[in-house]
Specification:
With about 600 residues, this protein is an alpha+beta fold. It is built from 18 helices and 22 strands. The strands form five sheets. Strands 3-2-1-14-13-12-11-10 form an eight-stranded antiparallel beta sheet, with helices on both faces. A hairpin with a 2-residue loop joins β10 and β11.
Length: about 600
């Protein structure tokens, strides 16, 4: 009897070791329900041991989505591309510390720190090169060629490669950075990056249903159709920054990728990727935030996130008509991938990620950080702006309309942002603070090498600015808007009262303001994917925005020559003129969307 009990105990122990902490749930019905609630078309997914599909692959035909359906994954291509670079590093053909300018002699960075801190390969992989994300024409264009040279993304004199922060110090997501990585691969391999990576990376990984090459729904009937809101379909389009987001795959292949990313880097017993490099994927290093102790952030093609009650290494992506997410839970060797063939601005895609996370990982209640020594947070109170922001073209908008405010409340901080609800941060030791729903520190307060105060989340840094700086911009915008409103509505009122004459000083400014409406019907007639192209609409927009200050000057000339000067008219025109000057200084006037 004793032997039987011993054997049963041993068998039970083996079963406990072999069984996951939590059985993977079948989420098919929940995903199908979420698709209906979010008004999305279809999805394919894998949780490594299970694959599924729901919804439709094409709203026009109603064809059901199949598990074997091919999909586009947008920026998850960066993870796979980064793996290709790490393969070359593992082979000794590249080093993470190689200066990019030496690998690509034709590329010229506008880098104020070039002599001591050049942009290196690691900086591109980590999004810490200080580069812009992309220009409108990089992404919203129907003129890119599927097999065009990658160098077309960096025309001479366009200022695309301006380095905005000291390389290696702060995260700033950059599609053009990963386009440069595609060029690096081509320079080393001596051929286009797509066929090289398909052969040298995807084939050894067993990802035979995946490709970096441009694939359309017309050329491959297994590729699900992309959709926007209300089931509007749109086929694939080539891009100027295709290494950053062009990748076609299946749920099964992404499962193979996930398993390898959590492996020791060996294939068939031989080293394929240096295991140290694999471990460093998703581990931020070298940035101000990482040195301050933040565990969340980006590293070598993956992002460590603290979300839905779990820590994971993830990468999301979206492209024409698709959204996707890949998440790895390395400690438990679990992962999920999901691709949805609809890119909607009104849907909440995080609900899918939360559902899949809960199906794999047990819920971990948040634990408040142990009270630490007092931190003099009062001196950190004030206003902060994104530094750098993601899209340099929108720097003025982000500065004026999206600053954050930090205030101190004992051991806690309150962070208020126009784009999200206020967040209370609890002290987690040193300069680290944690949001209530996080498992680890989520924010760091840092004094930069330039002695400026910085708040960082690991993937976004905010630099403190004086209130007067923001006030001056707010006053400029408010004055400009009020002046513009006066110039529009006063002539309308005079017209209604039949008091508007040809010599009215507001007539030219009024015409200039009305001219801003001219491009609107042309924008309605074109696809929004042409937003970055030089079209009739965008050309007209540049002309009328350039003419606006000229119309104000014409009105001022007439107003100041009159015997009786109406101060309100002069003030309104001056207000619009000063705002025009501010916009010109920020590169927004004339407004050239294709530039």
């Amino acid at each position: 009897m004793k032997k039987i009990i011993t054997r049963l105990s041993l068998l039970l122990s083996l079963l406990i070791i072999a069984t996951p902490l939590q059985a993977v749930q079948d989420v098919s019905s929940e995903i199908a329900t979420l698709l209906r609630k979010q008004r999305l078309e279809g999805a394919v997914w894998t949780t490594l041991d299970k694959e599924g599909a729901a919804g439709v692959s094409d709203a026009r035909t109603g064809a059901p989505m199949q598990v074997t359906q091919r999909v586009h994954v947008g920026s998850i291509a960066k993870t796979v591309l980064a793996l290709g670079v790490l393969r070359l590093v593992s082979e000794g053909r590249l080093s993470l510390d190689d200066p990019v300018a030496e690998l690509l002699p034709s590329i010229r960075f506008d880098n104020p720190w070039e002599s001591t801190e050049p942009v290196r390969l690691r900086h591109l992989l980590d999004h810490t090169a200080g580069l812009d994300d992309a220009r409108l024409w990089h992404v919203f264009s129907m003129r890119a060629a599927a097999d065009g040279p990658l160098a077309a993304a960096f025309p001479t004199g366009a200022g695309v490669l301006r380095v905005r922060q000291r390389p290696g110090t702060r995260f700033s997501y950059s599609n053009i950075g990963y386009t440069l990585l595609g060029m690096v691969i081509e320079a080393v391999a001596g051929e286009a990056y797509e066929p090289y990576l398909d052969r040298a990376l995807l084939a050894p990984l067993g990802m035979h249903d995946s490709s970096f090459s441009f694939v359309t729904q017309e050329s491959d009937k297994r590729l699900a159709m992309g959709h926007f809101e209300d089931g509007v379909t749109h086929p694939a389009l080539p891009s100027y920054v295709r290494p950053a987001g062009q990748f076609t795959t299946t749920a099964a292949d992404m499962g193979r990728l996930a398993r390898f990313l959590m492996s020791d880097g060996r294939l068939a017993g031989a080293r394929f990727i240096d295991p140290i490099l694999l471990q460093q994927m998703g581990e931020p290093a070298g940035t101000e935030a990482a040195r301050a102790g933040l565990r969340v952030g980006y590293g070598l093609g993956l992002r460590r996130i603290d979300r839905h009650g779990a820590l994971a290494k993830c990468h999301g992506g979206n492209t024409v008509g698709f959204r996707a997410m890949l998440c790895l839970f390395s400690e438990t060797r679990q992962a999920f991938f999901i691709a949805i063939n609809a890119d909607s601005e009104i849907a909440d895609y995080t609900k899918f990620d939360a559902l899949l996370t809960r199906s794999l990982m047990p819920a971990t209640p948040w634990k408040a950080p142990v009270p630490a020594q007092h931190f003099a947070s009062e001196s950190w109170e004030g206003w902060y702006i994104a530094a750098p922001n993601r899209f340099d073209s929108f720097r003025f908008i982000d500065t004026v309309f999206n600053p954050v405010h930090l205030s101190s409340h004992g051991r806690s901080l309150k962070l208020v942002s126009p784009q999200s609800a206020a967040v209370t941060l609890r002290h987690a030791g040193g300069g680290l603070f944690s949001a209530p729903d996080k498992q680890t520190a989520s924010h760091a307060l840092i004094v930069s090498s330039e002695a400026t105060r910085v708040i960082s989340t690991g993937t976004q840094s905010y630099e403190q600015v004086p209130l007067w700086y923001l006030l001056s911009l707010w006053i400029s915008v408010a004055a400009g808007m009020l002046g513009f409103a006066y110039i529009v509505f006063t002539p309308l009122l005079r017209m209604a009262m039949r008091r508007l004459s040809r010599r009215d000083p507001l007539l030219a400014p009024f015409a200039g303001a009305l001219a801003l409406l001219l491009p609107i019907p042309f924008f309605y007639q074109q696809s929004f994917l042409q937003m970055g192209d030089l079209t009739v609409a965008s050309g007209l927009l540049a002309i009328v925005t350039a003419a606006l200050p000229a119309a104000m000057l014409a009105g001022l000339f007439i107003a100041l020559r009159r015997t009786v000067i109406v101060r309100m008219e002069v003030a309104a025109m001056l207000a619009v003129l000063q705002f025009s000057l501010v916009l010109a200084c920020w590169g927004l006037l004339p407004l050239r969307l294709w530039a």
